[in-house]
Amino acid sequence: MDLELGLRRARNADGGYGSVAGGPSEPEPTAMSAIALSDHDAVDWLLRTQRQDGSFGLQVGSVLSDHTALACLALSPGDPREHALDHLERTAGANDPTGPGAPPYGWPWTDGAHGWIEPTAWGMLALLAGRPTATDRIDDGLAVLQAQECVGGGWNYGTRVGFGVVQSPFLQTTAIGTLATRGLDADLTKRGLEILEQRWRAEAAGLLSVSTAATVIGLLGGPSERAIRAAVEAAHRPTDTPDTVALCWAMFALRRIDPAAGVG
After folding, report:
1. In 63-74, which positions are buried (b, 16+ CB within 10 angstroms) versus exposed (e)?
2. Are 117 and 84 in contact, with CB atoms under 8 Å apart?
3. Are the beta carbons of 69 and 31 closer than 8 angstroms?
4. Could you please report the per-residue DSSP string of the chain?
5. Residue 48 CB neighbour total at 10 angstroms
């Protein structure tokens, strides 16, 4: 299919995937592509790039963007995944325990930052899949999602209120947050799914947004599954050069792949 061919164009000779076709291999698109395509060469690339502390990330200057949780979902059981899970379990948002950013902590995007919604959801998904006994960290992540849920349901990137203004939920963040709450908080999951159903048509032209929503609506059995799958197909334009992660989410949506299930 054109979608799969477009994704495979981002595969480099070293087995990794770039953020776009022709770009250098990076952990996030490589892990996502490994899951979407069951690409074991992509998994091998990840294994070759694992850092000494067990993490996976992209270093830009002094900033490390941490993608360990996503890499954990792409790895098979074994020592490298255990090492990565060790890193994930001991990583937390750098919130001030005595100030307004006290626990729960969640997970940060970058080393030394506060916890944010998407990395927290990925952290939960990775531990639920690979180390469900890490209940303290899973419960902490769920507490973040409960505390930062937007009014009416769903999530934006961080806080529900910023500078005194009530924030609206975002489609992509709500999709990943909803995925992480399955089996943990039925009411939170229900409200997240309702937000996806209410809002996806407003962002149907964006492949990443509509595909993340379609993946979760499909996995949870939302009423608009057929319509949103058609919207994903319409949003994918083979002549474009979309980012690799967007193509992966489109694959998840159209093939009913659960990204939390890892590589088949």
Report:
1. ebbbbbbbbbbb
2. no
3. no
4. -HHHHHHHTTB-TTS-BBSSTTSPB-HHHHHHHHHHHT-HHHHHHHHHH--TTS--EEEETTEEEE-HHHHHHHSPSSHHHHHHHHHHHH------TTSTTPSP--EESBTTPPEEHHHHHHHHHHHHHH-TT-HHHHHHHHHHHHHTPPTTS---SS-SEETTEEPPP-HHHHHHHHHHHTTT-HHHHHHHHHHHHHHGGGGTT-HHHHHHHHHHHHHHT-TTHHHHHHHHHHH--TTS---HHHHHHHHHHHHT--GGG---
5. 11
Structure tokens at 255: 């093939």
Position 3 scores a pLDDT of 85
| Average per-residue pLDDT for the chain | 91
Separation between Cα atoms, residue 19 and residue 245, nearest integer Å? 7
Model confidence at 44: pLDDT above 80: yes
Q: What are the beta bridge partners of residue 75?
A: none
**Model confidence over 49-101: pLDDT tens digits?**
999 999 999 887 777 789 999 999 999 999 999 999 999 999 998 766 555 55
Tell me what pLDDT residue 98 has: 54
Average pLDDT over residues 142-163: 87
Residue 1 has what pLDDT? 54
pTM > 0.85: yes or no: yes
